[in-house]
Amino acid sequence: MSGKLEAIWIKRGRRNAMDGKQSAKLIAGKGLENNADIGGKRQVTIISSESWRQMMSELRAEVAPSARRANLMVSGVDLRSTRGRSLKIGPCLLKVNGETRPCERMDEAFAGLRRAMDPDWRGGIYAEVVTDGYISVGDQVEWLE
Questions:
Q1: pLDDT per position as a tens digit, 65-89
Q2: Cα–chain-centroid distance for residue 144?
Q3: CB atoms within 10 A of CB 113
Q4: What is the DSSP letter of 76?
Q5: What is the helix, strand, coil percentage profile of the chain, to 5?
Q6: 41-70 as b/e: b if 16+ CB within 10 A
Q7: What is the DSSP letter of 79?
Q8: φ, ψ for residue 100 (rounded to 5)?
C-alpha cells in the first residue's frame, strides 16, 4: 500500500511558527534542512492526515494540522505500531524510532486535543533520515518490507 506526502513544515525554533513548504531537503543523520531540531533519533516527525481528520471530527474542531508541530503529513499509510520499520518518502528512506507522544501544547491549540491523540499513535511518529534527498508535497510514501 502506498500513500502520499500531503504537507511539509519547517520549525523555526521552540514555540515559533511552523513554515509550510512545497519541498525540502532531508539530510541523512540530521533531519530537515533549516529545521530547529537537528540530529538525534527524532530528526523528523510525521502525522497522518486520516488521523488528524478523525480527531477534528471527534472534537468538532477545525484546527490547522500545523498546530501538531510535526514536520510531515502523509496520507494512505498506517503509522500505528511502526517502530523499527522503514518508510520511503520520495527518494528518501527514513527509519521509524517510535511514537510521538502529545504534549500540553496540544491543549493550547484546542482543549482536549492532547487526549484525542493518545490512542493508536494518532500523535504521529518520529524517525531518523537514512538517505539524503529532496522531497516534495505529492511524493509517494510507502513502507518497505
A1: 999 999 999 999 999 999 999 999 9
A2: 18
A3: 21
A4: S
A5: 20, 40, 40
A6: eebbbbbbbbbbeebbeeeeeeeebbbbbb
A7: -
A8: -85, 110
